[in-house]
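Moderator note: this is an archived Q&A kept for reference. The question asked for a predicted structure of one protein chain; the sequence and the answer are reproduced below.
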Amino acid sequence: MSYHLKTLTQLRAGLASRAFSARELTVSFLNRMAAHDGGLNSFITQTPEQALLAADLADKRLAAGETGPLLGIPYAHKDIFCTAGVRTTCASKMLGNWVAPYDASVHQKLAAAGAVMLGKTNMDEFAMGSSNENSAFGAVKNPWDHTAVPVGSSGGSAAAFAARLVPIATGSDTGGSIRQPAAYCGITGIKPTYGRVSRFGMIAYASSLDQGGVLGVSAADCAVMLQAMAGHDARDSTSAPVPVPDYVAQLNQPMAGLRIGVPRQWFTQGLSVSVAARIDDALLELEALGATRVAIDLPDAPLALAAYYLIAPAEASSNLSRFDGVRFGHRCADPQDLNDLYERSRSEGFGAEVQRRILIGTYALSAGYYDAFYVRAQRARRQIAAHFASAFAHCDVIAGPVAPNVAFDLGAHSKDPATMYLEDIYTIPVNLAGLPGMSIPVGFAGGRPVGMQLIGPAFTESRLLSVAHHYQQHTDWHQQIPNAYREDVV
């Protein structure tokens, strides 16, 4: 029945009318995972038995007359969210066989809504990386070109969805880890405002930056999923007690009079000419729909990159200190003494990129350098937030590139971390300011997808989703599927 070609709205309608069952839907996607994931490596753990039990339960609820936007809908979970009874690895040897004793709030909400988890997706280890090559379980491939990266850290979720192995997926974004994979894989992804989605049970990388979000085919589908995930959680001290609007009902906000800010500094020689051309085409389409383009200044992208790579590693150094071979995580064999236990457990358990960031963070927090590095980075963070506030005095939404280029080849930057970090230059400022951002597909360059980033003031996810929805009603870039994954799996 080509379930993988249907939107959430179409799948919901089919389930409600009993045209097909949740079990049939789940089996179809499990078959696609079995047929295709070997070439993508997008999943760390597949959960077919649990999925079928959840699907059968959803069918009983549907038969009893219950309705719900996610009831019976399969999805993939980034392996950063704790799931009771199912291992949660963060793509690290440190947690290679750890089974969480409790559920993350996001997982609880999706389970209560009747969504059916098909498995846990691959990622950069502890969400640290911009390519999804930093996984103890191997690199993830881009469905559009298996020689290219899907980008990280939510690359497993993005690749699984882009190949339509699942109808929708969760992700997390610390410095662009939803928006970049969405752009490089030709799909839609949204990172909500910091505090909009609970971080309880989402294993921390950088606590003041991490935020859960969604990857899917369209703004409309992402709105459905985000609606279920968002909301205040008393168990998360950073969760915002702000009412959640009806994202689906607000998808058709008028475009007339909408001011779209375009940062002058983002369209310079550092940006690929072909990527800039695709974004300009998308802006012209939005102008045709009634929006107005406004030039703005956001001069802080290079400053944001430097500030992020001090603040995030500093928080990672603190958060990951608990994994020491004693209390949590991998323990080395036959330690000679306590120092040997610590050193070998952490050296064996953590990959090279995680070790690099822990060392940077520990250095930045050390007594002799705390004021010179960490404190100055936090001052820069306040300046970045202030510049966004000034920009939004002149526009309603900001639009620009997600990354300087299209997806790069596997291994292209593996020996040059500094070049890899530059891929984050347009996304990091949004996390530092705690704002909502999303990526929507706007075309191709050299056969690889291009995404455009939309950014709004805090708690304006509905506006971003609406702008993206209007654009997607008049274009079909979001409907494109790699040829290798278009056909049904028998």
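Archived answer notes: The longest strand covers residues 437-445.
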